[in-house]
């Protein structure tokens, strides 16, 4: 359900910030939705013949729209413009000239060909923060298509995901796109802070491959620092154990034991008090060296009770563990914990996951549902002064 004035600044920390959003699919739209939740006025510029690709990525659908699109586009206004047409480009340029932030994820060189490249638009908007999201950068990888599955493959994530000896497994969501969106958002906020101090805009670039390699953290450090080439270990951890899946009486159970103290408590609760003093298991380093023997020792006691029973008892004792939930179970847990992870449907329509960051003074706001294609074209153009074509380079 749309508010009367969905474009008005929300009460968040980014109130008054205008974002010209040329992003498509996931990384860019996810980032700009988070900015919109924090009060920014995000103007989503889409092609008239279909708009953002994810509008057609269904089933499933809700209210006649693909849930993929709905999940990353609330609190935005949609403007349908044909950027191959001079009038459409001029209208887009006028929006950019009054924006604080521009976000785009076209193939490198596309925005320049449209007269919307960074060097061109900064002539009339020198304070603009210009964020480009690419698959593999703007130099040697400029011709490579930035699809999440491809980056998971060539970027090493699939090599450490899945069962040992397998061909590799992708994450169950487009995780690289999400991580990249978060990095891009951080870059934009840092650039806005720099502009606040100096008045200067700048270009912010983030690639899917670079973001993934950064997110590989301990696995990347093992390779760069120790020459290790990590391999897939299923649900086990290369440096910690027991940190894996066991079978409880009714369904799988995860143990995530990160300290010797937690391990000793686990052994006591399982009725195996002497196990923590066994030289093979007394320290984490020793446990990693003898992980197979340890898994056998733990399997029997864990199989004697249900996953929920262990979840309750071990969590209360300070031992990290829990069942493998489906999404219904995951949201039910979040509800029980009072995390407020669901946006009220009357605010933005069905299927909206709440902004994950809580603020004491500037909370996220949910002002409007994901827009229909071109829903706000007339509204936005009416409030946008025409650009001076003598400076537009169009």
Q: Descriptors for this entry?
A:
elongated, 3-stranded antiparallel β-sheet, 6-stranded parallel β-sheet, CoA-Trfase_III_dom_1_sf, CoA-transferase activity, 394 residues, CoA-Trfase_III_dom3_sf, 12% strand, disordered C terminus, single chain, 37% helix, alpha/beta, CoA-transferase_III_domain
Question: How is this structure best described in words?
Answer:
This protein is an alpha/beta fold. Helices cover 37% and strands 12% of the residues. A 6-stranded parallel beta sheet has the order 5-2-1-6-7-8, with helices on both faces. β1 (18-22), α1 (27-37) and β2 (41-46) form a beta-alpha-beta unit. The protein is elongated and about 80 Å long. 36% of the residues are buried. InterPro entries: CoA-transferase_III_domain, CoA-Trfase_fam_III, CoA-Trfase_III_dom3_sf, CoA-Trfase_III_dom_1_sf. One of its GO terms (molecular function) is CoA-transferase activity. Residues 345-378 are annotated as: Disordered.
Low-confidence stretches: 1-7, 390-394
How many helices? The count is 17
Query: What strand order characterises the main sheet?
Result: 5-2-1-6-7-8
The average pLDDT value, as a whole number, equals: 92
Radius of gyration: 25 Å
Which structural class do the helices and strands define?
alpha/beta
Fraction in beta strands: 5-15%
Along the chain, the helix and strand elements come as EHEEEHEHEHHEHHEHHEEHHHHEHHHH
Query: What's the helical proportion of residues?
Result: 25-40%
What is the strand tally? 11
């Amino acid at each position: 359900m749309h508010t009367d004035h969905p474009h008005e600044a929300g009460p968040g920390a980014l109130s008054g910030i205008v974002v010209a959003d040329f992003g498509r699919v996931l990384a860019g739209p996810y980032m700009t939705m988070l900015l919109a939740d924090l009060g920014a006025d995000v103007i989503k510029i889409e092609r008239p013949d279909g708009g953002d690709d994810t509008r057609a990525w269904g089933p499933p659908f809700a209210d006649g729209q693909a849930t993929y699109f709905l999940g990353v586009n609330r609190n935005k206004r949609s403007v349908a413009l044909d950027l191959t047409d001079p009038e459409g480009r001029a209208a887009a340029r006028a929006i950019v000239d009054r924006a604080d932030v521009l976000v785009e994820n076209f193939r490198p060189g596309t925005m320049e060909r449209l007269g919307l490249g960074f060097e061109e638009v900064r002539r009339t908007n020198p304070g603009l923060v210009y964020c480009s999201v690419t698959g593999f950068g703007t130099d040697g990888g400029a011709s490579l298509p930035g699809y999440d599955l491809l980056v998971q493959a060539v970027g090493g994530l699939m090599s450490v995901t899945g069962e040992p000896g397998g061909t590799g497994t992708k994450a169950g969501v487009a995780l690289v796109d999400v991580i990249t969106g978060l990095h891009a958002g951080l870059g934009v906020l840092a650039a806005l802070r720099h502009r606040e101090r100096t008045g200067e805009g700048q270009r912010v670039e983030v690639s899917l491959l670079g973001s993934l390699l950064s997110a590989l953290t301990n696995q990347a450090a093992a390779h760069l620092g120790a020459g290790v080439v990590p391999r897939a270990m299923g649900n086990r951890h290369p440096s910690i154990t027991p940190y894996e899946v066991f079978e409880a009486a009714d369904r799988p159970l995860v143990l995530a034991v990160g300290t010797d103290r937690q391990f000793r408590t686990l052994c006591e609760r399982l009725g195996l008090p002497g196990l923590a003093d066994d030289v093979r298991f007394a320290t984490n380093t020793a446990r990693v060296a003898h992980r197979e023997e340890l898994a056998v020792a733990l399997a029997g006691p864990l199989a004697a009770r249900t996953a929920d029973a262990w979840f309750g008892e071990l969590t209360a004792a300070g031992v990290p563990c829990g069942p493998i939930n489906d999404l219904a179970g995951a949201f039910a847990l979040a509800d029980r914990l009072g995390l407020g992870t669901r946006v009220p449907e009357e605010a933005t329509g069905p299927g909206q996951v709440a902004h994950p960051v809580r603020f004491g003074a500037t909370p996220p706001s949910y002002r409007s549902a994901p827009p229909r294609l071109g829903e706000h074209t007339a509204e936005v153009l009416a409030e946008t002064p025409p650009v001076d074509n003598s400076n537009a380079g169009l």
